[in-house]
Specification:
The complex is a heterodimer of chains A (about 250) and B (about 325). Chain A has about 250 residues and is an alpha+beta fold. Helices cover about 30% and strands about 25% of the residues of chain A. Chain A folds into two domains: about 100 residues, Gyrase A, domain 2 (2-Layer Sandwich); about 140 residues, Beta Barrel (Cyclophilin). The longest helix of chain A has 16 residues. Chain B has about 325 residues and is an alpha+beta fold. Chain B folds into two domains: about 190 residues, no CATH class; about 120 residues, Cyclophilin-like (Cyclophilin, Beta Barrel), CATH 2.40.100.10. In chain B, strand 17 and strand 18 form a beta hairpin. The longest helix of chain B is centred in the C-terminal third of the chain and has 27 residues. Classes of the chains: A alpha+beta (about 250), B alpha+beta (about 325). At the A-B interface, strand 3, strand 4 and helix 3 of A face strand 16, strand 19, strand 20 and helix 5 of B.
Amino acid sequence: MPSPQTSITDAAQLSPQLFPLGDAAVVVQFGESISLGTHLAIQALYDHLGQQPFVGLRECVPAFTTLTVYYDPWLVSAQGQHPPYERVCDILQQRLLVAPAAPLATIATVEIPVCYGGDLGPDLAAVARHTGLTPAEVITRHTKPEYLVYMLGFAPGFPYLGGLDTRLATPRRAEPRPLVPAGAVGIAGMQTGIYSLPTPGGWQLIGRTPLRLFDPTAYPPTLLHAGQHLRFVPISEAEFNRLSHEP
Amino acid sequence: MSLSVIRPGLLTTVQDLGRPGYQHLGVVLSGALDAVALRVANLLVGNPQTAAGLEITLLGPAIRFEADHLVALTGADLSPTLNGQPLPLHRPVAVRAGTVLAFGAARAGCRAYLAVAGCLAVPLALGSRSTYLRASLGGWHGRALQADDELPVGTFSPAAQRLWQLLAPAGLPAPWVAARWLPGPALYPLPHAQPVIRAVRGPEYEQFAQASQRAFWHEPFTITPAADRMGYRLQGPALTRDSAPELLSSAVTFGTVQVPPGGQPIVLLADAQTTGGYPRLAQVITADFSALAQARPGQSLQFQEVSLAEAQALYLAQERRLQGLRQAISLKLLA
């Protein structure tokens, strides 16, 4: 991962492309590849629009290289003569000029306790075999990095993480499981993530966290959000059971 | 005031206009698939357009009204009856306590909407009453309705009280009385056997082979049985990309036509996940979401390309029609 200093410079040099996603959304595309600089530029525009929304703004969805801005054409059209899409693009171009490059977030790193292997991580042995590491080495390498939450998607609260040790890259399972429990921690190719809802899935499951990634009765309803850092912390099965039963 | 579910029907859920504001956390939008039909139903009973109603899919439920209610049914024609008598669509209906709403054959369309004056008073979940089944979120306990559910209903708005007065000035002379007026036909288009669905080009349109682009706009695509509130898997000519750069996950939404590697497109609906990694060939225009929502598995769709300017003009025209209906009902209440 590049150092933050160079990344902010990179971000300043990006000239984002704007294009429509249908009649009620504009996609702001910052380059074509995943980088910390791109991520920070997206977060900066996201924060800026959150703090100073324009009339008709519905919501914004950050992703790896894009910020998608949903708007209400009816409310936007009431603001002037321009067609809604052009008006929103004008606004976004202006905002891109004034949105500050986001300072590196100083939020505390979120710790995710994970019980690795056994019934809770049935594919730990398969990942060890594929990577030529011992299961203990897989756990050590998986718990070492500080991961960056680039975006949430796929399911409520599901994080797309950057920072996986390349030695741990393992292809998806040939046969997806019909039901993966919420909290399952998996590896798929160069990605690692945490299932936030029980769902079918093909990731290699190396462990499980007792934390709830999505709780609609909480505010905010998700444990994580884009821009956060997280670290996996190994716990025992006894610890997992204890934490699972905490309210 | 409440509604009692005698039979739940195939898939009956509480929906409002969705749950915006949480998509950045991966929480899907949800909401009525035919939002125009729900908004019209709400206007007809004096509710805010954003109020929650029931979305009724193909095989309707049987519901008993436990108090005098003012209701409206819009969207698909699923042969509704009140106490066995055919119930007209698209108008306010005053119903007496104890009356039973039931449904028969699905004559046209796929989803009907029931609005009840006073609104379905289910709790808000993340700012919305819409049901999102996959996460058991919102609606009635996060699930589709079941027999013996009893749904609470709020109290009449002043507009609902006036509408009731107009329909039953001296009390209800029969189990139910329907208004003789209804909105202009543009607000309840008859579902078509092979609907034309207008769309604009999607962000990855140019990556598709010219033959695939042509096929998309000119060949029919059939809705397969793999069709739910998240989206329809379509079957038609295989659509392929000339250049296939690896795509990074980005936003998808209601109306996005995405094409997985197999080449058979998927058109996403209200329960679409918030981001996806398949190329986005096209985006259905908002003004045609209703036609899309009313199409059934087994039916064919014909996509038609429009410009973004046309799409937005059609969006604004639809909003003006809803605005017009709102004003017309207000005038009727003043008269």
